[in-house]
Amino acid sequence: MIEAIERAAVEAIERAVIYIPPDVKAALIKAYQEEENDVARAQLKSILDNIELAEKTMRPVCQDTGTITFYVDVGYEFPGVRYIRDSLINSVRVATQKIPLRPNSVHPFKNVNTGDNTGRYVPQIYWELVPGDSLKFTVVPKGGGSGYPTVLRMVPPGRGFDALREVVLDAVYRAGAMPCPPTIVGVGVGGGIDTAIFIAKKAATLRKIGTLNEDPELAVLEGELAKAINELGIGVMGLGGKTTVLAVHLDYSHRHPASYPVAVVFQCWASRRATAIVKPSGDFQVIQ
Ligand code: SF4
After folding, report:
1. Are 268 and 178 in contact (CB under 8 A)?
2. In the chain, where does the domain assigned CATH 3.30.1330 lie?
3. Are the C-beta atoms of residues 11 and 92 closer than 8 Å to each other?
4. How does strand 245-253 pair with strand 183-190?
5. Ligand 1: which of 62, 102, 269, 273 to mutate, most ligand atoms within 8 Å of CB?
6. Atom 1 of ligand 1, nearest CA residue
7. For the chain, how far is it from start to end, CA to CA, in angstroms?
8. Secondary structure class of 152 (helix, strand, coil)
9. Pocket test for ligand 1, best of 104, 268, 271 (most atoms within 8 A of CB)
């Protein structure tokens, strides 16, 4: 089982860093087809050529292969639960050598790179216990540039939607070209500060483009925010044009009456993810 989990994880990391998922690719193609600004069109063409080249040569789609996050759903009955953590961490070491990945795990005070993309709290692993006997995990390699402009703000609870809109637009405006637009903007509202960041990151990185928010009011708000952001005109790689965001994905948590956290997390155009499903037999499949 150790081997099966590790092989599934290495394959998922490999797929994630090389192949852009179909929903993201479709959104980039649509942006290219609808763009009228020559510079933005040229940039989108380069992005699409880059994606095609990565697929053909089986090389990572971006030089920044990110830091790895695993979102793990482990079935109550899955055999070998005790091996999952170590297998996932080891898979990152193996993938770093095999693919290879850029070593991106640096000690914050000593500035020493571990060289294998692991370290204290790296890779990040988030766990959910679910019914069933399978193991499912999604690997998200997240680039540093798109992490840089992350915002967490506490807004006056009485200002609700208005404040939320201001925080999001201000965050995108200040971010400019930094997160390599067109981006997917994840917005986490409510909860404690840790929950707001967590759900914003999940919304930016895991939710497929084109899926509707389950709450119809929030679906409308997502559309309004995306429209308002695109009207800022930052555009592809900050060079103008129609598309600054491919989507705005919003999630919320119930909150304390006295606090209203709003988190804004960016995911760059190289929005990478792949999911592995491991059966009790050790058979696995990797999907995007
Ligand atoms: S932000 Fe994304 S596209 Fe830009 S360099 Fe980092 S990983 Fe690559």
Report:
1. no
2. 2-16+61-143+271-287
3. no
4. parallel
5. 62
6. 145
7. 23
8. strand
9. 268
List the alpha helices (DSSP H) in the chain: 2-18, 22-34, 38-57, 84-98, 144-147, 160-175, 193-205, 216-230
> Which tokens hold the place of 223?
């559309």
- Contact between 173 and 262 under an 8 Å Cβ cutoff? The reply is no
Give me the count of residues in the chain: 288
Q: Which tokens hold the place of 136?
A: 């499912």
| Domain formed by 2-16+61-143+271-287, architecture | 2-Layer Sandwich (3.30)
Ligand 1 binding site (Cβ under 6 Å of any ligand atom): 62, 64, 66, 143-146, 179-180, 268-270
- Per-residue pLDDT of the chain in tens (288 residues, 90 and over written 9): 889 999 999 999 999 999 999 999 999 999 999 999 999 999 999 999 999 999 999 999 999 999 999 999 999 999 989 999 999 999 999 999 999 999 999 999 999 999 999 999 999 999 999 999 999 999 999 999 999 999 999 999 998 788 999 999 999 999 999 999 999 999 999 999 999 999 999 999 999 999 999 999 999 999 999 999 999 999 999 999 999 999 999 999 999 999 999 999 999 999 999 999 999 999 999 999
Q: How far apart are CA 237 and CA 234, in angstroms?
A: 8
Residue whose tokens read 């790296």: 122
Query: Ligand 1 center to residue 245 CA distance, Å?
Result: 15
Contact yes or no for 40/235 (Cβ under 8 A): yes
Taking residue 7's Cβ as centre, other Cβ atoms within 10 Å add up to 18
Residue closest by Cα to atom 3 of ligand 1: 270
Token pair for 206: 């895991």
